Amino acid sequence: MRTELSLPNYENYPDHGEHEQTFLITIKKTPNGPAPWCIRRAWRGVELVAIRSASSIPEFPDFKPVSTSVNRDSFVVLRDLGLKGLERFGRKRALEWFERNWPEELGFSFAADEVNYQEF
Questions:
Q1: CB 40 within 8 A of CB 18
Q2: Which of 22, 45, 92, 119 makes the best surface tag, with the fewest CB within 10 Å?
């Protein structure tokens, strides 16, 4: 399902100057992490607007424990945009899980090998 996406304001992200490229990503693999497999699997096929990060951003940990996400190529998505993506693609169960369990101050991070991407 292709939808219209607008560019978010990433100015409040840490070290935004290092994250100048904005990308449209489509999740192609079930991401690793603490959520149940059926919840994580719901990300597959969801399109999101993200910024690219050449290393981990501690304030926005990955689905994996922070210690395994250090120094990896990843794409970072604002929490609200991630949740809206799940909603837009009809992933109600996953949306509800992340609304209940994912801290409001954290975004989502997807490894480069978990997504297809193109510059926005």
A1: no
A2: 119
Structural domains of the chain, count = 1
Q: Is residue 39 part of a domain?
A: yes
Q: Considering the entire predicted model, what is its pTM?
A: 0.74
Q: DSSP 3-state helix, strand, coil percentages of the chain (rounded to 5)?
A: 30, 20, 50
Residue 1 identity? M
pLDDT in tens, 46-103: 999 999 886 544 444 444 433 344 456 899 999 999 999 999 999 999 999 999 999 9
Structure letter (DSSP) for residue 10: -
Identify the domain containing residue 23 by its residue range: 16-119
Find out whether 91 and 51 touch, Cβ atoms under 8 Å: no
